[in-house]
Every structure is written in C-alpha cells, then in structure tokens.
Amino acid sequence: MIAKKELNQLLKNNFKLVAFDVDGTLITSDHIVTPRTLRAIKKAKDLGMKVTIATGRHYPSAIRLARKIQINAPLICCDGAFIRDIYSNDSIYHFLPREMAVDILRMTQSYENFSVQIFIKKGKIYSGQSYRGSYFIKSLRAPVKRTLKGYMNFLRDFVFIPVQNTGNIEGAIAALNESPVKIVVYGNERPEDLQDFIDRILARYGDKITVTSSIKNSIDILNGGISKAKGLSILAEKLGIRPDEIITIGDNFNDLEMLKYAGLGVAMGNAPEQVKNKADYVTDTNNHEGVAKFLEKLISVKIKQECVQYDRQNHIAVKREQNGISLDV
C-alpha cells in the first residue's frame, strides 16, 4: 500500500478514467450520493476525465445513479457481464449458458431455504413469492436510520424494477427461457451450506464460471472469466485507454479484480481487510465522504500540474518574444 507522499506522486500520472463501485462506495448507507461527492465528480469531468460506474447491480438498479452523477463513459453492470452506453443504448452482454444455469439452479435445491435471483436482459426472476414485499420489509429493517430521500432511492433502485415472482426455485427454472446474465444465490442460516454449494459448483464447472460476492451470505455466479475488471478492459479498449490510466474505487470482494487491474486501485475505509490489503490506497469510509476526499486529492494534483504547465508555456513564450526582440535590434 502506498503512503500519502507516494500517492501525490502517483496522482501526477495521466489518469483518464475513474470507475466507482456503488454500494458501500459511491453512496452512503442511506443510499445517497452526497453533494460533496457530486461536486468532486463534476470537477474531475471538467478536468477532462471519464467517469463511470462498475457495479454488481443490474441495469434497472444502476441507471438512476448513472444519470445522477452524469457518467460520460458506458455503464458496467452485473459485475462486468453487462455494459451499456446509457445515451445510445449500445450494449454488450456476457451470458451464462442456460443449460449450465439450470443445472446450477437445480443444485441449490439440495439445500434448505436457499433462494435465488436470476438477472436476465430485461429484469429479474425471483424464486420467492413477493420480491417487492421482501425488499420493502428489508428496507424497514435496515440497520441504519434512513432519511426520506434515502428510503425513496432504495425503493426506486430495488423495489420498483421489473421482477417476475415464481414462488420457488423450480418455478424460477421454468420461467428461465433465455441465458441469464447472472445468478445470485442467497444462503440459509448455516454458512457451511453455502460454502458446500460453492465447492460443488466449482468442482463441476471450474473456470467455466466465475463466483464472487458483494453481500454477506450470498454469491454471484457469472460466465467464466467475467468480472468488473473484464468489463473495464473491454470499455478501456473501446475508449483507447490503458489500464495504467484507470483509477478504480471499491469496497468488496467483487471489486478485487478491478482494484488489481487498474493503474491505481482505491479501497474504501469500510472495506474488509482482505480488500484493503490488495488495494494501492485506502480512503475514508462511504459514510465519511471517502470518494470525495480521494477525488479532491486527485483534482488538486491535476490543477497544480495544469498551473505548472501554463507557467512553463508562458515562460517559453516570453523567452521567444525576448529572443525575437533582440534579433530585431
């Protein structure tokens, strides 16, 4: 991990793109992007940087925030399996083959009280009776006290989105008539059951699947080789940006690959120690303006660089003018 002095030196590099995780990173626990964070993002864009979101959320749950911060590069959703330009709607998908998805879903039936969400192109399939009801109850039981604004943001992002309720996992399998983008499996009260399930699917499919996690007692299953880092690499190639010109900011295990991929990987202060240890730098927590504080450091360095460059160019211009005068005499 780099020290503050080394960070200031590193920030002098020509970074061109910043990619933010959402939950636990860009937004507070109250589901709000603070005014300070919005100002910092705008200033970074004013200085010529591209900004985007790289999230495990599905597109319907991420688009409001993408518009809120006015991203100027394509949006990365579903842990890298779905990339969309929110202005042109041009999209790139990496699907989990349906046959494989169905087999994995059937394997969850060996465990009591497992549930699933299946991310498909235009929404979700839920194995329970009432997706909206379950998330409404979840919002009421949130460990943090939410403001009305934060509560409404949560409802917009997670409750008022397209979802098909199927009652159980067998119903979810029957409803799945296309290859999904991602499967989220929620474990029961025995963590060892979820670990056993992970071991079984990895033993069967190996590198044909990617297994990651962003929420306690749940896992995300994607096609093999897919990650936020993979999504970023596709995006970077399209934009003509090198990995060493990218900054990534995240807080959880599904951010690890993109933190390592980027020229500068920044972990949030609320991230697990395993994530912090893999990052180049650790900023403050999501509830204490961690993203804004880091961006302000970046902006300060960039402005100083521009001032130095301006002074240098002005000095050269003056010298040339002086030389020209002396030659005329």
3D structure, described in words:
With 329 residues, this protein is an alpha/beta fold. It has 2 domains: 161 residues, HAD superfamily/HAD-like (Rossmann fold), CATH 3.40.50; 89 residues, Hypothetical Protein, Haloacid Dehalogenase-like Hydrolase, Chain: A, domain 2 (2-Layer Sandwich). It contains 13 helices and 14 strands. A 6-stranded mixed sheet has the order 8-7-6-9-11-10. Strands 2-1-12-13-14 form a 5-stranded parallel sheet. A hairpin with a 6-residue loop joins strand 4 and strand 5. The longest helix is centred in the last third of the chain and has 39 residues. The radius of gyration is 23 Å and the shape is globular. The C terminus is likely disordered.
SSE topology string? HEHHEHEEEHEEHHEHEHEEHEHEHEH
Tell me the total number of β-strands.
14
What is the CATH topology assignment of the largest domain? Rossmann fold
User: What is the 3D shape?
Assistant: globular
Please tell me the overall pLDDT: 92
Number of domains: 2
Which residue ranges are poorly predicted, with pLDDT under 50 across at least 5 consecutive positions? 325-329
* Distance between the first and last residues' Cα: 58 Å
Number of helices: 13
Please give the CATH architecture of the largest domain. Answer: 3-Layer(aba) Sandwich
Strand content: 15-25%
Radius of gyration: 23 Å
CATH homologous superfamily annotation of the largest domain? HAD superfamily/HAD-like
Main structural class: alpha/beta
State the CATH class of the largest domain.
Alpha Beta
Strand order in the sheet with the most strands: 8-7-6-9-11-10
Give the helix proportion (percent range): 40-55%
> How many strands, which pairing sense, and closed or not: the largest β-sheet?
6 strands, mixed
